[in-house]
Specification:
heterodimer; A: alpha+beta; Ribosomal Protein S5, domain 2; five-stranded mixed beta sheet; about 30% helix; about 35% strand; B: alpha/beta; 2-enoyl-CoA Hydratase, Chain A, domain 1; 7 strands; globular
């Protein structure tokens, strides 16, 4: 298992936390929580080591459009980049009133 | 294909098997009447999995919800089959035990609180070996303590099924609800092959496995109480009925003499056929 952390700038507050997904084969769990301040922090724990650059590319793309001040925790069991983006978008949707 | 109305109901029904543990648990409660206890944001996860390089899950694959079923207080504990095969570790085991014990405490103080266990599990989580074994022993003790006051209802929907130590927990519960897709057994087919060889049990022979471990056979031989379709409404209704029914006059696992006699009557020197077993163990009037 590999731990990877990222930080991104944030512009607006988020009202609700959200939890989506399952740590099942090819899937992942996302925990999204509002934080104070102007940063978003992401912690990834993944069963597949050696994909730091891929995670960075996926999250760069996600945070190019999303600017919430949140703490995101990802527990991953080998999800593809496409599944990761869909789960992140699902978490954002669930965190919006 | 059967007639058109059957096809429509098949298309329109909401599958229970396709739901994850949290959605399954929520679906059993009266609308808007449930809250989760020790949820993912409490982050009570397995301390042992990361040490072995395995990604943990924030709820350790065990969802505990308290609410009302058929207007009565009830607790639902759902195992997530997609996470580590629904296996029981230290944390998920402690969550299930604590939920059962709190339900017993409420029941003893005059508020009967049935428990519904949604079991999709291969049993003990091998990465937490002894702690998982201890957890299952505790769960069994807690089921026995609670079932004297309120029913403990096990639902096995599939497709993981219920195996290993948790099949013993299922056996102690007041009622078992199964679908045709579900399986219930002590040793899983792969384990039997590994221990005794493919001549003993062929895990690739799905028809054979379901003829022995499947929900239909378990129901037909009286080892499960309700056979349901993979339909969320039907399963919720079955659970409601059993909650209303209350504690059975005799639990299946208390009928020691009956089952001793049945096992004694089986001749182990020849191969038994699942259909023959139905004939000799079958429910009265159902055959």
């Amino acid at each position: 298992m590999e731990r990877i952390e990222f930080d991104y700038p944030a512009r607006h507050q988020v009202s609700r936390r959200a939890h989506v997904g399952v740590v099942g084969s090819g899937d992942l769990e996302v925990l999204l929580e509002p934080t104070q301040g102007d940063r978003a922090h992401v912690l990834v724990r993944t069963s597949v080591a050696g994909f730091r650059n891929t995670w960075k590319a996926v999250l760069d793309r996600f945070f190019a459009k999303y600017h919430g001040a949140v703490r995101i925790e990802i527990n991953d069991a080998g999800a593809t980049p496409g599944s990761v983006l869909l789960r992140l978008e699902q978490a954002v949707e669930a965190s919006e009133p | 294909m059967s007639d058109a109305s059957t096809d429509v109901s098949f298309v329109e029904r909401q599958s229970f098997i396709e739901l994850h543990a949290r959605e399954r648990a929520t679906a059993l409660f009266d609308p808007g009447a449930a809250r989760e206890l020790v949820g993912p944001f409490d982050r009570v996860e397995s301390p042992w999995l990361p040490l072995q390089g395995v990604t943990p899950q924030a709820d350790d694959g065990c969802v505990v919800m308290k609410g009302r079923i058929a207007g009565r207080p009830a607790v639902v504990v759902a195992l997530e089959g997609a996470f580590q095969g629904g296996s029981l570790g230290e944390v998920s085991g402690a969550k299930m035990t604590a939920a059962l014990d709190l339900a017993r405490a409420d029941s003893e103080s005059g508020q009967p609180t049935p428990a519904v266990l949604l079991l999709e599990t291969g049993g003990v989580r091998l990465q937490e070996a002894n702690l998982g074994l201890a957890a299952i022993a505790e769960i069994m003790a807690s089921i026995l303590a609670l079932r004297a006051h309120a029913p403990v209802i096990t639902v096995i929907a599939g497709t993981v099924g219920c195996f290993g130590g948790m099949s013993l927990a299922a056996g102690l519960s007041s009622y078992i609800v199964m679908t045709r897709e579900a399986r219930l057994g002590l040793n899983g087919p792969e384990v039997i092959e590994q221990e005794s060889g493919i001549e003993e049990f062929d895990p690739s022979d799905r028809a054979l496995i379901w003829a022995i471990n499947g929900g239909e056979q378990r129901y037909a031989t009286g080892l499960a109480d309700t056979l349901v379709e993979d339909d969320t409404q039907q399963i919720a209704a079955a659970v409601k009925d059993l909650v209303a029914k209350g504690v059975p006059s005799v639990h299946r696992s208390s009928q020691v003499a009956l089952y001793r006699e049945r096992i004694r009557a089986l001749d182990p020197s020849r191969q038994w056929d699942p259909k023959e077993l139905r004939a000799s163990w079958g429910r009265r009037g159902d055959e």
